[in-house]
Design brief:
alpha+beta, 33% helix, Alpha-Beta Plaits, five-stranded mixed beta sheet, 32% strand, 11 helices, 400 residues, four-stranded antiparallel beta sheet
């Protein structure tokens, strides 16, 4: 399985991540040409050889009208210049695939939500310093574009070093990690230490949490390449860099899943259907029933509920509450799962989003039902006619 491991022993910033991935690319010149024709006003992207603590790597200099924002991705200086709507318009106009634009929009939306929560204001009132906004858009687009070229089947990220002390920004002196960064890193393993300063920026945090499929130590893999992204700041005795390891990992079960199973023969179909809906709303990964014959020849159903192992007790309580069963059986199972993704296909009827799943040398594609249904209504076609037209485009290799 093609695996990307990102080591964040000195945190992460957008330009550092882009530089580390850049070093893994086969066509680095083509990547830079694309990055310098994004249509972002005044933005120039240059890959410069650099060293961090004696370790050779690349510093990705992103300048706006000749100025490179200090602190890597420019998230510290915020003034009322560029609003989220303006950023969204910039991203929508990027000359890259819809898959890349979609990832970039989601990353920037996460940053805006985190900033809004940190400062107690609506998302619409979040503003970014103009220079910082433009170079951060380039950083986000660059990481999303590089990953679309590398196509890792799974991405694992190390625990993230956030630094310590304080950071000065437009709102004053804030503790590290800054509030927006802390919001973005919710659910991810982080740690501080003796290094003073902001090691993980909001852009770095948003990119890592968006793309990481798991956090932890480096998996066993056959190494194919190492990329080193060097930051602009110097920390005595520390190599200020992000390292990206690309290799082939052995395909193993992707973790565990819990099955909670019970037999039910005294609920009406309506009541059981309602219980299944509620269990999904309460966090079950999947809920399904199979018909069965119970004691004394009574017709009944076998209810199966899937959940993460850590939610086993909570979900068992929900099943006992929502159904008439007096007991459950519990099974812990290893699982194999493809990595979900998103794409788009251009069809004669119009664009249609795709659900994608990749892994173990397999790729699944499925058109979004609502998009196909909307086109069928708009064109006066049956659903069958519309979906056949969509599949012709998918199988013709026109998906992005």
């Amino acid at each position: 399985m093609k695996t990307l491991y990102i080591e964040c022993s000195m945190g992460a910033a957008g330009d550092m991540l882009m530089a580390a991935l850049y070093e893994l690319l086969e066509d680095r010149t083509g990547f830079l040409e694309t990055m310098n024709h994004l249509g972002l006003p005044g933005v120039e992207v240059t890959a410069r050889p650099a060293q961090a603590g004696g370790l050779a790597g690349t510093h990705m200099a992103v300048t706006v009208h000749g100025r490179e924002e200090d602190g890597a991705d420019g998230q510290q200086g915020r003034h009322q210049h560029a609003a989220p709507g303006h950023i969204a318009a910039l991203i929508d106009g990027l000359p890259v695939s819809e898959e890349v634009r979609a990832h970039a929009r989601e990353v920037y939306d996460a940053i805006a939500r985190a900033e809004a929560r940190a400062h107690g204001c609506p998302v619409e009132e979040v503003h970014f310093h103009e220079v910082g906004a433009l170079d951060a858009v380039a950083d986000v687009a660059g990481v999303c574009y590089a990953l679309s070229l590398l196509r890792p089947e799974t991405i694992v990220v190390s625990p993230i070093h956030v630094g310590s002390g304080t950071v000065r920004c437009a709102h004053g002196v804030l503790p590290v990690p800054a509030p927006a960064t802390a919001n973005l890193l919710s659910g991810a393993p982080i740690y501080g230490g003796e290094v003073e300063g902001e090691l993980c920026t909001p852009t770095g945090a948003a990119l890592l949490t968006h793309f990481a499929q798991s956090f932890g130590p480096m998996p066993a893999m056959t190494l194919r390449g190492v990329g080193v992204g060097v930051g602009s700041r110097i920390f005595p005795g520390r190599a200020n860099c992000v390292r990206a390891f690309l290799g082939e990992a052995e395909e193993r079960p992707g973790g565990e899943i819990t099955e909670l199973v019970c037999n039910i023969d005294d609920m009406t179909p309506e009541a059981l259907a309602f219980a299944c809906t509620r269990l999904l709303e309460l966090g079950a990964l999947d809920v399904y029933t199979t018909p069965g014959t119970m004691k004394k020849g009574r017709a009944g159903h076998v209810l199966t509920v899937l959940c993460p192992p850590e939610r086993e007790t909570e979900m068992a309580r929900h099943i006992l509450t929502q159904t008439t069963t007096n007991g459950l059986r519990v099974r812990r199972c290893g699982k194999y799962a493809l990595t979900p993704g998103a794409g788009q296909v251009q069809t004669p009827l119009g664009p249609v989003r795709l659900k994608l799943a990749r892994g173990y040398g397999v790729t699944h594609k499925k058109p979004e039902f609502e998009d196909v249904a909307a086109l069928a209504r708009a064109k006066g076609l049956s659903y069958g006619e519309a979906v056949r037209a969509v599949w012709e485009s998918v199988e013709g290799g026109e998906a992005e």
